[in-house]
Amino acid sequence: MSDLLRSAPLLDIENATVYRGGSRILDNINIHIADGEHVAIVGPNGSGKSTLIKLITKQLYPYAGKGENAKVEIFGRDRWDIFELRSHLGILSNDLQQDYTSDDSLIAADVVISGFFASRGIPGHRKVTDDMISAAEKALKLAGGETLTNRKLAELSTGEARRVLIARALVTDPRALMLDEPTAGLDIIARRHFLQSIRTIAEHHKTVLLVTHHVEEIIPEIVRVILMKNGKVFRDGPKNELLTETVLTDLYEEPISVYQQGPFFSATSVTLDPLPRRAGAGG
Q1: Cβ of 267: how many Cβ atoms within 10 Å?
Q2: pLDDT at 59
Q3: Within 10 Å of residue 100's Cβ, how many Cβ atoms?
Q4: Do 75 and 8 contact (CB within 8 A), yes or no?
Q5: For residues 253 and 35, what is the distance between their CA atoms, to the nearest angstrom?
Q6: pTM beyond cutoff 0.85
Q7: Tens digit of pLDDT for each residue in 161-196?
């Protein structure tokens, strides 16, 4: 890795505006995330989180109409070969999992190794080395999936498959891991185990960038929160200052209650009506 990549921030976005289908989806975004800084990006549906992910992963590019200085730099560079970027920024999304689990021939170990080739499986013309196999075993262990090596991905539970795909994102030893709604589809127990795995990864000096609309997913290692609303950065600052009833009520535009249990936060709408009782139900 070059000295520039080692010293550069994870993310440096300035004056970035994105249009899709004639609509402005992101409006003059400015975000700076230092290397090693664990950050959560939080916002309601439609706030621009998904578009921001595509901007970071170079699937979209900013519109420079606000001036010539719009930029999106990842590790100090504004131009990346997508395959090269994947070796520095591991990505886990629900869409990726759906793509992999739809193929009932893929073995977990091969899925992890495929991260070296940025491919869905192992290309027939590519050679798998002993170092790759060793790295895959190490990544599976770090993700808590060491017992899944020889199992088919399509036969795993949602939580187990997610561990395998975390290992795939980690196999190239990236500097950072970006998680897009990572606990979608997980039950309460699977979510707890999954979040513990993310905490372990954060402790192993991997920068964690979590994109979510669930406050409960924000692990204690994350100390900074960026709140998105209507395609803009609504607030940006320390977690303890932004995860409050006042701020989240302004964000969601309805009353929100916030609870803290130890280092974890949770939030809920206080205007939700209780479920109607069935006729004749006792109680």
Answers
A1: 20
A2: 84
A3: 20
A4: yes
A5: 33
A6: yes
A7: 999 999 999 999 999 999 999 888 889 998 999 999
